[in-house]
Specification:
Blueprint (H helix, E strand, L loop, with lengths): L1 H24 L9 E7 L2 E3 L4 E3 L2 E8 L3 H31 L7 H17 L4 H59 L8 H15 L4 E5 L5 E5 L2 E4 L7 E5 L5 E5 L11 H10 L2 H25 L11 E3 L29 E9 L5 E8 L6 H9 L4 E5 L5 E5 L3 E4 L20 E3 L13 E6 L5 E4 L13 H11 L3 E6 L2 E6 L7 E8 L2 H5 L6 E2 L7 E5 L7 E7 L3 E2 L7 E5 L5 E6 L10 E4 L2 E5 L3 E2 L7 E5 L8 H5 L5 E2 L7 E2 L1 H5 L16 H7 L14 H41 L3 H34 L1
Antiparallel strand pairs: 1-4, 2-3, 5-6, 6-7, 8-9, 10-14, 11-12, 11-15, 13-14, 16-20, 17-18, 17-21, 19-20, 21-22, 23-29, 24-26, 24-31, 25-30, 26-27, 28-29, 32-33
Helix pairs in contact: 1-15, 2-4, 2-5, 2-6, 2-14, 3-4, 3-13, 4-5, 4-6, 4-7, 6-7, 7-13, 7-14
């Protein structure tokens, strides 16, 4: 019996020493759980007068761990995995924007506006104009690069999902394989502990991908659920798979199942969020919004500027005119056209210039997007003398000028407002104060006397005027010209104006009523008009800065010679006949000097004679906003940029091919840079659709959000990692191998082994002595 006690002690000490050696050899093995032999006494047997001790028994081989702590570690891995994948995506977004840096969009903005400033200071320099277009193109290129990179980042998330599913499936398969090994190890004491350690490592890794639940049976085999669906059983496993819809949006499923895995956290959730839009989609939308408004703001100004050529012979819209319903665009209201920019209720000013006479004709077209059809718009443009509008074969709006004419959409002032010669002609002039339509009676007769000769009678009758109660100025002018000799009638702004055919101080003109009140109806004064040997040239300069369209009328207050007659004045009336200004053009005025009448309009008078009270006048039409309907922006006519957002923004190819088409001025002078100054003003302009901030401020806000998102994600990840590390440290305190402790245990069991050996030796010696007795 004593030998059995010694032998059990030796065997137990040997097993303990082997276990300690196993622990020491795996002290640095990741995930290893310390093992320990549980010892128990064999017990004693009792005789009639004695007790026989049984020695020590090596019980179960225990794997030291903490199941509750381990579950918390697995759960925390999920949070860390989600934050890690989120931060990774945000870091990529931050690197794509590249701010601050020479390749960032901010630097391109600076270069573009700097080039505009250089052009405004030296508009005659072709190199400055070329630099503006080059930097505009570079700015557009950077927008497209940003959009493309953010798109590719979203596509990369789909690739990340494919890679993650492969990794998850590999983990699932290995866990299932270990389950099979554990089944085979049943009955072999301690054989499954190392396999369970490997399972724990795999569970931690799997936990980082999604919401996980697991439990073990008595053998140690794992049953694992991912997103509440079983992926590993004690005998089998199922892989997961990523499926993509027609738009490339992914969902996760168990193989062969139509039910979607509801992944709520972990790396997979981060990848799904990114592929489903995520932060890169938000930032791409933000950049699209900036680019969209950039296109609109710059095109709004550029389209109403004037190129160095003074106008265009042909312009084609950037955007095809289609309807969302697929119907022919011509018959539909403008607001049903499928255009990227909104058409507003407003006006469009079209200016036509006769290249030979330099006569300027500006026409305002009213636009109501809900009522005006495309055909109506084309008809109104084509009704303007000198231009024609139509749709080309690809449904692009095409406007062309007639030979000898050019056109533009600037709100320029007519530089020669007295082209009819009513105000400053050398001929005798009598102009009516009343505008059409006119109401006459049958039998009304006008007498017209030229140069003191016998009067010519103009009989107003239905043979020459269709409706005497609503006669037009042109009908009356035609009736006068049909019988008059020595004088010509013309229509000026709906008024009838008569002038002698022979200019000079000797020419006179008088209009009286022979029968009825026709002269009074026309507003023609009863005074005799005299011609002059000194006609007056009138020139208008500047750019109208008023808030509303205005018609200014200029009339002499007294008769006299400009620059000589003391106290000579010309009054300026607005369209409501309110006095705007009284211009001093007497002895203190230097002929040819511009006089400011307000709101950016200047007028200059050449030396010559003017006559009061004879209907001499001229008008200046001042347009506040040439494109208040935004129709030029919507169609893409005379645009600086083409495209609709960051994906397709580009410099207008026409400008790239011919920089002289760049609309740098309001007028045609090569030194005119007023339109460039308007473009520079965009830098500080608050844009309503951007939340009343400037374009650059909006972009700066995007960059700030990118930085804030990244900083928050980084801080969140750091916090979650600290929590995870704390849990791991606590778990390691339970299952980790302390070399010092193991060495102490080793020394203890070495001594126990030596003691057991000495005990057996002593028993043998005693036994030998007993046998010798």
């Amino acid at each position: 019996m004593s030998l059995n006690i010694g032998t059990s002690a030796l065997r137990t000490a040997q097993l303990a020493i082997n276990t300690i050696g196993h622990n020491l050899s795996n002290a640095t093995t990741p995930g290893y759980s310390r093992q320990r032999i549980n010892l128990s006494s064999i017990g004693s047997q009792f005789g009639t007068s004695s007790r026989f001790a049984g020695g020590v028994r090596a019980g179960s081989l225990q794997r030291l761990s903490d199941g509750i702590l381990f579950r918390r570690v697995v759960d925390q891995e999920r949070s860390v995995g989600y934050q890690s994948s989120t931060l990774s995506g945000l870091n990529e977004i931050e690197s794509i924007f590249g701010e601050p840096g020479s390749s960032g969009l901010s630097a391109r903005f600076n270069d573009f506006f700097s080039s505009l400033s250089s052009l405004s200071a030296a508009p005659d320099e072709a190199s400055n104009r070329n630099a503006v277009l080059a930097h505009a193109g570079s700015l557009a290129d950077r927008f497209r690069e940003l959009s493309g990179s953010l798109d590719r980042l979203g596509s990369g998330s789909s690739q990340s999902i494919r890679g993650a599913t492969r990794e998850v499936n590999g983990i699932i398969a290995e866990i299932s394989s270990i389950n099979q090994q554990l089944t085979q190890s049943v009955g072999i004491p301690g054989s499954g502990h190392d396999l369970k350690d490997r399972q724990d490592l795999l569970l931690q890794e799997l936990g980082s991908y999604g919401n996980l639940h697991h439990d073990r049976d008595q053998v140690g085999r794992l049953r694992v659920k991912l997103a509440s669906q079983e992926v590993v059983s004690s005998t089998n496993y199922k892989e997961i798979e990523a499926r993509f819809d027609v738009k490339g949006k992914p969902t996760l499923h168990l193989e062969g199942s139509s039910h979607r895995l509801d992944i709520r956290s972990g790396r997979l959730r981060g990848f799904l969020d990114s592929a489903d839009g995520g932060k890169e989609s938000e930032r791409r939308d933000d950049v699209d919004e900036v680019a969209h408004n950039l296109i609109a703001e710059f095109n709004r100004i550029h389209s109403t500027g004037v190129p160095l050529a003074g106008g265009f012979e042909s312009l084609r819209s950037s955007y095809a005119l289609e309807t969302s319903t697929g119907q022919a665009p011509g018959t539909r209201p403008l607001d049903e056209l499928d255009l990227p920019f909104e058409i507003l209720d407003g006006q469009l000013a079209i200016t036509v210039i006769d290249e030979q006479t330099r006569a300027v004709t500006q026409t305002l077209i009213d636009v109501d997007p809900g009522e005006t059809s495309l055909n109506t718009l084309l008809g109104e443009i084509s009704a303007i003398e000198g231009v024609e509008a139509r749709l080309d074969a690809n449904n692009h709006l095409l406007i062309e000028s007639n030979p000898g004419s050019v056109f533009h959409f600037g709100n320029v002032l007519d530089p020669n407002p007295d082209a009819s010669g009513v105000f400053g002609s050398g001929s005798a002039v009598l102009g009516g104060d009343e505008s059409e339509p006119f109401s006459f009676q049958a039998g009304d007769i006008l007498n017209i006397s030229v140069n003191g000769g016998l009067p010519t009678a103009v009989n107003l009758q239905t043979s020459s005027i269709a409706d005497l109660s609503a006669a037009t100025a042109q009908e009356l002018a035609d009736a006068i010209n049909a019988v008059s000799s020595g004088a010509t009638a013309q229509v000026v702004d709906g008024r009838v104006v008569l002038s002698s055919d022979v200019p000079g101080a000797g020419s006179t003109l008088a209009v009286t009523d022979q029968s009825g009140t026709a002269a009074a109806t026309l507003g023609i004064p009863s005074a005799i008009a005299n011609g002059t040997d000194l006609p007056v040239d009138v020139a208008v300069t500047g750019a109208f800065e008023g808030d509303e369209n205005q018609t200014f009328t200029f009339e002499p207050v007294q008769s006299g010679t400009i620059g000589l007659t003391p106290g000579l004045q010309i009054r300026v009336l607005d369209q409501d006949q309110n006095l705007v200004s009284t211009l001093e053009v007497g002895e203190d005025y230097v002929p040819g000097d511009p006089i400011d009448i307000g709101n950016g309009v200047e007028v200059a008078f050449g030396s010559g004679e003017i006559e009061a009270g004879t209907g001499r006048f001229f008008h200046v039409e001042a347009v506040a906003e040439a494109n208040s309907s935004d129709i030029l922006v919507a169609f893409g006519l005379n645009s600086l940029f083409t495209g609709t957002n960051a994906q397709d923004i580009a410099l207008n190819q026409d400008l790239d091919d011919n920089p002289l088409l760049f609309s740098q001025g309001v007028g045609t002078a090569s030194s005119d840079s007023r339109n460039v100054l308007r473009m520079i003003g965009i830098r500080e302009k608050s844009v309503e659709s951007l939340g009343d901030v400037s374009i650059e401020s909006k972009y700066d806000g995007i960059i700030n959000r990118v930085g804030q998102d990244t900083a928050r994600a980084s801080a969140s990840l750091e916090t979650e990692q600290l929590v995870l590390q704390g849990l791991k440290n606590r778990l390691e305190e339970v299952r980790g191998v302390s070399i010092d402790e193991e060495l102490l245990e080793l020394e203890k069991f070495q001594q126990a082994y030596q003691a057991a050996a000495r005990f057996i030796q002593a028993v043998n010696e005693v036994t030998d002595i007993l046998f010798q007795i």
